[in-house]
Design goal:
single chain; about 425 residues; mainly alpha
Length: about 425
């Protein structure tokens, strides 16, 4: 029995902690761990008759959302390849509950996990800076489209990876008492500042904006991490001014992409902008001309599938249809590049209403958590960790930015990853009170 527990601890406790590394290697190994975690969770929950993981409002909510996905997929069955993502989507919310279960079963205070994250961030930062200054990373991946990608190669998702891994790293730091109001390690501050700088040079503007939203939300919720966050931002600002000036090439100067290119795309400045697409009030585009094209097509598809949507891959299938495509094939893509627009097109008003409900719930939780922490006279690591998890969820469902596909396996696993941590802290704290 002890050997069984030890084996489970190694596989699931440490597997959960290193899950971002599994995602770094690609979706296959991460998917395998996800399935094993769900089987582990379901088997022991049912075996021990511990049904509280299923008998709660969160499980009911995600169950309803999945059925909206399932129903929209069935009534818009284009082919199995397009439908399988919707039919099997139930595993993604179940993964969040598996995380909650694993966190309850195995303790947090393990400095080996913190060591893993320190090494992971140090290696990625070093590799990214090496690629930034020398044109190739340690594996020989060259810079593509004037953007840093590190170990991801042709996939330009470095900034998103760091953004969504950082909150989990902070949670483990807090839970292992390596980060608190009185304990601010300068080396940790530099490491995290460099991680922020890598997001900056990755050229991922959405990740860059959401990074600041994450820190701002944490500043709003908890007074105990303010000194640390302010120190990180000051060091990051210094790196952003000094480090880009150490490179001669202006082709990968991050400020140009982050600010000038964004300005040009929103206003439609330059010779690359066709005249047939109208700007909003003849002045601006929604993020860019391409994004606005996605949204126009999405709206046209939505009008024909208002209640239950066009299915998980409906936009991919229909956006090239002559009934929806814009002039010169403008606007076609695999997804609409905004989570709320994608849910509206894929799941209709039913799924969209559930997403809006989730957004308002998280906003309410931000204020509830802030009030509770404000009333406390000491650094309570479980409540602070919950605040970090809430902030991570909040930036994942923030509506006013372009985004990857909600139904992309890699991204959806990252979206639901902090939800599992939130459920653990939320239900643990409430159970403790009761």
């Amino acid at each position: 029995m002890n050997s069984e527990i030890s084996f489970s601890k190694i596989i699931f406790k440490y597997g959960l902690a290193v899950f971002p590394l599994l995602l770094l290697t690609g979706p296959l190994i991460a998917e395998l761990f996800l399935i094993l975690a769900i089987c582990f969770f379901c088997y022991y929950s049912i075996k021990d008759k511990n049904y509280r993981f299923f008998n709660n409002k969160y499980f009911i909510f995600f169950g309803i959302f999945y059925f909206s996905v399932f129903f929209s997929t069935i009534i818009n069955f284009y082919n199995f390849d397009l439908a399988k993502g919707g039919l099997t989507f139930f595993r993604i919310p179940l993964f969040a509950f598996s995380i909650w279960f694993i966190l309850e079963k195995f303790k947090f205070n393990d400095k080996k996990i913190v060591t893993f994250y320190l090494i992971l961030f140090a290696v990625i930062i070093f590799d990214s800076l090496f690629q930034y200054y020398f044109g190739k990373n340690l594996l020989g991946h060259e810079i593509k489209y004037a953007r840093i990608s590190s170990f991801f190669g042709d996939e330009l998702i470095l900034g998103g990876f760091i953004l969504r891994t950082l909150p989990i790293f902070l949670i483990y730091l807090v839970m292992n008492e390596m980060l608190s109001e009185k304990r601010i390690n300068i080396y940790l501050s530099i490491l995290i500042s460099l991680a922020c700088f890598v997001i900056y040079i990755s050229g991922e503007r959405t990740s860059f904006v959401l990074l600041f939203l994450f820190f701002f939300t944490l500043l709003f919720i908890t007074k105990y991490l303010r000194k640390f966050i302010i120190l990180v931002m000051i060091i990051f600002a210094a790196f952003s001014v000094i480090l880009p000036n150490l490179i001669n090439s202006k082709d990968i100067y991050p400020a140009s992409r982050m600010f000038k290119k964004t300005y040009d795309q929103i206003l439609g400045v330059g010779d690359n902008y066709v005249k047939h697409k109208k700007k909003i009030a003849d002045k601006v585009y929604i993020f860019s001309q391409d994004h606005q094209g996605h949204y126009i097509i999405s709206y046209n598809i939505f009008k024909d599938h208002m209640i239950f949507g066009a299915g998980v891959k409906g936009f991919r299938h229909l956006s090239a249809n002559k009934n929806y495509i814009l002039e010169k094939n403008q606007g076609w893509s695999t997804h609409p590049h905004n989570t709320y627009v994608e849910i509206l097109v894929s799941n209709g008003l039913v799924g969209f209403s559930l997403l809006i409900l989730a957004l308002f719930f998280i906003i309410k939780e931000i204020f509830v958590c802030r009030k509770k922490i404000k009333s406390q006279n000491k650094f309570e690591k479980y409540e602070i960790s919950k605040a970090i998890a809430i902030s991570a969820i909040f930036i994942n469902i923030w509506p006013l930015v372009p985004s990857g596909s909600f139904y992309n396996n890699w991204l959806s696993m990252f979206y639901f990853y902090p939800i599992g941590f939130y459920l653990y802290f939320k239900l643990r704290n409430e159970k403790k009170i009761n």
